[in-house]
Amino acid sequence: MSQQPRERWGSRAGFLFAAIGSAIGLGNIWRFPAEAYKNGGGAFLLPYLIALLTAGLPLLILEYTVGRKYRQSPPAAYRELAKPAQVIGWWQVAICFVIATYYAVILAWGIRYIGFSFGEQWGDDPEKFLFGEFLQASETPGDIGGYVGGVFWPLLAVWLVVLLILAMGVRRGIEKANIIFIPSLVLFFLILVIRALTLDGAADGLDALFTPDWSALGEGSVWVAAYGQIFFSLSVGFGIMVTYASYLGRRADLTGSALVAGFANSSFEILAGIGVFATLGFMASSAGVPIDEVAAEGLGLAFVAFPTVISSMPAGWFFGLLFFTSLVIAGFTSLISIVQVVVASVQDRTGMARVPAVLGVGGLIALVSLLLFSSDNGVHFLDASDHFINQYGIAMAALVFVIIVAWWLRRLPTLQEHANLTSAVRLGKWWLVCLGIITPLVLGWMMVDSLRTEFDENYGGYTTDFLVKYGWSVAIGALAVGILISLIPWRRTGGAPPRPPGGGDGPAAPGETPDSERRSA
Ligand code: PFF
């Protein structure tokens, strides 16, 4: 437990910008458009909206409520619910640790591609350039043959900036950074979308994305995709929102904030869909091929398809600058949020001050990140660990968490009461139904569905040996680490402000700003 009174957001807007900054990430830009396109186009918006209302927002509200009520990071907050529940908290911390190590490297690539856009340095074959000249990816996944300077240095720069921002604290670091980054991101992205819409073939791209295929609604996999997108995109299940909400004041409006953050995230997602598909429409029309031949997602979209398009348009460098800068900013604010989960959890557990915690814990993540992901095998590690940690880490931790809170501890009504004390939109029975029934059913179904595909064919065409070593072991390892850390006896080391029974609803602790003086956050 920390000796200091807990940090607080400077304003409600500051918290919202940070929460939105975490939610808007690579998932919005390179995942949503492709998911929508593959799963019924315009018709996908219906399951997507239902997923948002029945699971995404209820879970987001749950995370905000737990964070604000107990005012601690996930392990310590869940421990207040029930001692063994801290395992889920440490499990989420381990997941965040893993994701942070590879998420950062994508930002490093993005930074290099801002530079490559000038003069279209990827030449005629962006794919060959990406894996060859730039990443120098080894042919055999699994063996590190050397390090790539062109990735190492920008990655080091990413880590130095992240650690600096975190060391400056919640209000002066994270909040300020998001207040600057998020409006800039929206501005850059709007210019990009306007430019994309003026390209030849843009309308065909939008047609391809939005033309509804209503028959898709009858397919289970479309619904799984919609819920999967919502969970990832809203950053629920990582413990991020519990951590961010732990810096809220006691009068903060929880449900209203969740609605604002949720709808802002989805609006950006739809904007990204428009920008990406207008651009792909142009790509298809200039190559004279149908859209489905150019539709891409993830790394292939950002680092192969977009460079190809940039090379074929006038003043492509400008488009490249806008696109890669947006990608880097969107990812950066998500990376900050995920590292903060690990730093805050260690701080709350050990009583360490912020700067040593950032240097020690953040420094360790940075080191692992540099060692693994600036190597010539980085791209293979990234691909496998990303897939497994998402499918069997985040979603599984979220599933166990809702089951424990809703069914084992039966704590939803108390949490509902807590949220309703200060929230403009009151939670009714629907919240209990969504979290107690719909969310666990959907998450459970998603798990079964993913496992079925996993055993049908090897992910990404990798060998079973590689997937066991760098996929399964990462996902299962995160849980094992979570359990092991929970076993360390918990002696409260610091002078944490004593909390009244039932969480943080009582009077302000000594040294804390009384709520009456701080209504904003
Ligand atoms: N909501 C984020 C996204 O859409 O990219 C999910 C996320 C991923 C958050 C990785 C944080 C992170 F480090």
From TrEMBL:
Transmembrane segments: 12-32, 44-66, 87-111, 144-167, 179-202, 222-247, 259-284, 317-343, 355-374, 389-409, 430-448, 468-490
Bilayer topology: Multi-pass membrane protein
InterPro entries: Na/ntran_symport, SNS_sf
Family matches, as PANTHER family: TRANSPORTER (PTHR42948:SF1)
UniProt xrefs under Pfam families: SNF
Subcellular location field: Membrane
Region (Disordered): 495-521
Organism: Streptomyces armeniacus
GO cellular component: membrane
Annotated keywords: Membrane, Transmembrane, Transmembrane helix, Transport
Protein name, per record: Sodium-dependent transporter
